[in-house]
Amino acid sequence: MTSNKPTDWGVVVFPGSNNDHDALDVIGRIKNQNVSEIWHQDENLSGLQALLLPGGFSFGDYLRGGAIARFSPAMKNLPDFIHDHHLVIGICNGFQVLTEMGILPGSLMRNADLRFIHEEIYIRVERADTAFTNCYQQGQVLKIPIAHNEGNYYIPPDELKVLEDRHQVVFRYCDRDGNITDRSNPNGSVNNIAGIINQQGNVMGMMPHPERRCDPLLGNPDGDGLFQSMIDHISRD
Amino acid sequence: MKARISVRLKPVILDPQGKAVLRAARQMGFHEIKSVRIGKLIELEIETEDKEAAQQRIEELSHRLLSNPLMETYDVDWTGD
User: Fold this and answer.
1) pTM of the model
2) For chain A, does the N or the C end have fewer beta carbons within 10 angstroms?
């Protein structure tokens, strides 16, 4: 049964994070959940049911996106947090942190077309049975913005096959009708991959920004389903 | 001691930066340039008595922080005292 008790969230704030407040606003004001900021120096994740690693340029993206953030004290207890079946969502730079940590496979390279991309794109829901997407329909097309310089998902061919065989791809870039084409691939990602999940099913990384499409005031709230899915999943436990 | 670590993208990895520089070079008339790959050079100073131990430490740092082994390789050069 779904309860109405608010769920407990944390949003990690690294120096250079810049989508942390969008995420806090969505979780707190729009979704009415309990949410706190976790400063990168703070190791304590106790009491939280979901953790969000926000977009931005943590530590200036020095060395590689997410490469330095992964060694923050706030990340120290992340493996245990994940082991305890809590939910973790990494968006954009947060996705980069998760791949750098090796929690999600692959890595995010520079966009294939030499520019920072900031535009609304379409993604197709490849799996509607995850903790992050259960409010969507299989094959549903979402219109959500991307904003990144390094969003070109790469994974060696043998690992790509494993990822696909295990159905760990949750979102793919597509055209407005849901067709997966080269033209609808904004950054060169292999197999148009926009978001993936870990094998255990409780960690997701994605380059698009659902937190920017939750407020009905901003137009289509296509990102809302992601947060609602997570809330429903936690409340059912 | 000083170490100079060169981090390079693996050959299979697309290098958009290198491609952009190649294009600019060609536009400048350097038609003989066939390819450009861009990496990083990291210089470190290490306080140590034990060179062998230091080398191991720098290998570990290069593997865990300075490079992403999935898409990059690295070489360490020791440049004396």
Assistant:
1) 0.92
2) N
